[in-house]
């Protein structure tokens, strides 16, 4: 199963359009959105092309292929615009040998993990910083932010393809972090 991950869109229409174009090209079965979809939040500057209502319209066209979790900037008002559920603080995707625990990263985080096995993958956003590494008790994966990257990184997204998780730059799909998750 091929999966695509995007986090921290924060209402950026150009970032959303690029993510959806890449999703179409990727052949991924599901687009996993890790929160902070429509609003920029009080600590962030407005992202390029800030247009939350239009972002909602674009995402709604893919509603049946989206799995999403709630970010700290997402609200019940946002849910009223979206045709797929975003209010769950976490979700799980079960693979043949392990599970992906999906969350935004403001409640559960690498320093405060839910009970996971060492083969499980903790998938989160929130920090806007890409991560693909072995943690103390599980694998850690963060696709970064598609709209407001931090830490000197380029806007990025994630892919799970043939047992490999990778973080890729939004502009040219260059791999900036990756790890194998299957033995």
TrEMBL record:
Keywords: Hydrolase, Metal-binding. It holds the Pfam family Metallophos_2. It is an enzyme of class 3 (hydrolase). One of its GO terms (molecular function) is hydrolase activity. Its EC number is 3.1.4.-. Its cofactor is a divalent metal cation. It comes from the Bacteria. Gene3D superfamilies: 3.60.21.10. Residues 1-161 form the Calcineurin-like phosphoesterase domain. PANTHER family: VACUOLAR SORTING PROTEIN VPS29. Belongs to the metallophosphoesterase superfamily. YfcE family. NCBIfam families: PRK09453.1 (NF006988), yfcE (TIGR00040). This is Phosphoesterase. The gene is yfcE.
């Amino acid at each position: 199963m091929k999966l695509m991950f995007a986090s921290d869109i924060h209402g950026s229409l150009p970032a959303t359009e690029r993510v959806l174009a890449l999703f179409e090209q990727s052949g991924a079965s599901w687009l996993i959105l890790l929160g902070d979809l429509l609003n920029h939040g009080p600590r962030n500057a407005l992202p390029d092309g800030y247009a939350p209502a239009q972002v909602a319209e674009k995402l709604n066209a893919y509603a049946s292929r989206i799995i999403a979790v709630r970010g700290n900037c997402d609200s019940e008002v946002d849910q009223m615009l979206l045709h797929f559920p975003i209010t769950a603080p976490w979700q799980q995707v079960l693979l043949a040998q392990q599970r992906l625990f999906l969350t935004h990263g403001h409640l559960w985080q690498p320093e405060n993990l839910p009970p996971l096995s060492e083969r499980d993958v903790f998938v989160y956003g929130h920090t806007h910083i890409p991560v693909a590494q072995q943690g103390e008790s599980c694998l850690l994966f963060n696709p970064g932010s598609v709209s407001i990257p931090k830490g000197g990184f380029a806007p990025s997204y994630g892919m799970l393809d043939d047992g490999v998780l990778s973080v890729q730059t939004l502009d040219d799909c260059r791999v900036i972090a990756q790890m194998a998750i299957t033995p």
